[in-house]
Amino acid sequence: MDAVHDRLQxxxxxxxxxxxESDTFPPGLDENVVRAISAKKGEPEWLLEYxxxxxxxxxxxxxxxxxxxxxxxxxxxGISYFSAPKQKPALKSLDEVDPELLRTYxxxxxxxxxxxxxxxxxxxxxxxxxxxxVTTFKAKLRESGVIFxxxxxxxxxxxxxxRQYLGSVVPHTDNFFAALNAAVFSDGSFVYIPKGVRxxxxxxxxxxxxxxxxGQFERTLIIAEAGxxxxxxxxxxAPQRDENQLHAAVVELITMxxxxxxxxxxxxxxxxxxxxxxxxxxxxxxxGLCKGRNSKISWxxxxxxxxxxxxxxxxxxxxxxxxxxxxxxxLSSNLQQADTGTKMIHIGRDTTSTIVSKGISxxxxxxxxxxxxKILKGAENARNHTQCDSLLIxxxxxxxxxxxxxxxxxxxxxxxxATTSKISEDQLFYLQQRGLSxxxxxxxxxxxxxxxxxxxLPMEFAVEAQKxxxxxxxxxxx
Amino acid sequence: xxxITNLAANAGDTPILKGLNLSVNPGEVHVIMGPxxxxxxxxxxILAGRPGYTVTGGTIDYDGQDLLELEAHERSRxxxxxxxxxxxxxxxxxxxxxxxxxxxxxxxxxxxxxLNGADFLRLLKKKLALVKMDPELARRxxxxxxxxxxxxxxxxxxxxxxxxxxxxxxEIDSGLDIDALKAVADGVNALRSPERALIVxxxxxxxxxxxxxxxxxxxMDGRLVKSGGADLAKELxxxxxxxxxxxxxxx
Lengths: 478, 251
Description:
The complex is a heterodimer. Chain A is 25% helix and 35% strand. Chain A has helices at residues 2-8, 31-40, 45-60, 99-107, 114-120, 138-143, 151-157, 159-165, 176-184, 425-433, 438-454, 459-473; strands spanning 22-24, 83-85, 122-128, 131-135, 147-150, 189-193, 202-208, 219-224, 229-237, 245-247, 250-255, 260-268, 280-290, 296-303, 308-311, 314-317, 323-332, 337-346, 352-362, 366-375, 383-393, 398-407, 413-422. Chain A contains twelve helices and 23 strands. A six-stranded mixed beta sheet of chain B has the order 6-9-10-3-11-12, with helices on both faces. In chain B, strands 2-1-4-5 form a four-stranded antiparallel beta sheet. A two-stranded antiparallel ribbon of chain B has the order 7-8. Chain B is globular, with a radius of gyration of 18 Å. Chain A binds chain B through residues 424-427, 429-438, 440, 444-445, 447-452, and chain B through 48-51, 71-73, 75-77, 81-82, 84, 87-93, 98, 101-102, 105-106, 109, 141, 158, 162.
């Protein structure tokens, strides 16, 4: 077991400093800061009003403390709410991008070059700190009518669409962090798939938090019109920092009749060092509204990073026959803590939800699965199947399960299964006796444990996810 | 190939082996029988390098190496295979994926290139036929939901894939009905070769109706107290172990 623990101490691979000249606001948040953010981005009046409304709500809210996580409180007056690399907006080609920035992305293995992306058939919308730098493949996507651009660009190019849907799934009053996000969101992705269009390629976004004391408040909005389909990949990486960094993002998904959105995340934010110093606070509100009949939203995530993870990608199953899915692998190692899960709210008739949650706790990691399945009164024939499995590696980690099941319609069928297991010494020895090293044995067992979730990831992501889990787990399985 | 000299060992804190001596050469099939608690499983576990056992005296020489210096996976790669008495389940891991991972770990240790998917499946097909195993078992999760017979067959399949130099079969016949027993025995016999040695641990003579041993040893009170040929097994079956105990006490 010692070999396993040693490997876990390995330094975070993506950690390094980027020396880009940042246009960063002094720390603190008040109405002026909100106005300044809006001005810097050249936003229309209605969006400024939205931000201000959200900010004023936020001021009246209290930070929630019910999550099963302990962390040094965030000093909201001590962080800067805007940071952008000094750049001209609307770059026409990659030649205009700050070479240091490009070098950063290269180091992180982000394929910014269109050529590379052609090979992978993936469009990349890269966000560096608070401002989208390059959006590629716009032209190709435009051919099919798909809009994939930064949120800021969308505000300029399709303001009516943004205005119609912004806050329609996660209102600014939803929770403390959603209100904060609505006030100071920096940038993010905007996706619009027109009627009947199957998006010709997988859409992907990479994020990176760089400048010290900058929280990242990204905002993503994906709209799928009737009969459309899109697969969206979100992969994150961040450099090594000493201070905790707040990441309070909001993601809203909307599907109309017969539309589908597949949203996959591989998250590798800096998790903090072995003493629990540094690391990202990942407080995210992600929600999908299955507005239309027979529409479907799938969340698939592999979360291995962050010091604190607090997120519940959820589905509101409003349309009759709509389907919500949540597949998750979450690893908490060293001193990582996670309170995570999902909410499936059944409103329409004949709705279905599937939850498969695989939690891995190792070293002194701590993980809580918190899930809510709500069947409202009018939700005839609702079906839910929940499977939440915990794998404990070592004797000092922890896993808790807090399922909430609320059924207000007698025709519902709700199933909940949960298992907790350890990697047994017998399993380890069996594999070692077949020639696998202790580390490889753990990897194999964990891969088996996560198989149901990995199967749901788009292929290139699945490979990346498996590698990431292996690296993160070295020494921690069982 | 294998020389065990005066081996003394504990299982946990309990002394089990008390001066065991055994010599095994390539091509030989040695059978070890004995009453419960004598140390048969202890012996095979120690040879395989299972944690929880301590060697308190004696030596184990394997091909000129001190076997006790090697870790479990290194012993495997050096050609030692243990067919477990109670094979454990590994859910979510497809049997053939596991076989390929193990095989490639061995190949890598030998400096060979890993087998690609197609070549591996070809080899797997050959070995499945050799041990007459249902190909369906290769696609299922390792030992998960396998019957007793299927688990033992899976052990033999793995032995066929990894081609060890020393095979340790720990009660490969336990829990099997006649048909399964015959199938497993056929598999073992198909793997006999002049380069390979087998140590077969069993309680019962009937396995030996199908697998003809070269040597039969009786493990009693932590030592091999009597050795003979196939006839010794028949005599034990007829008379039990008491007469051996008396013979040893008298000596």
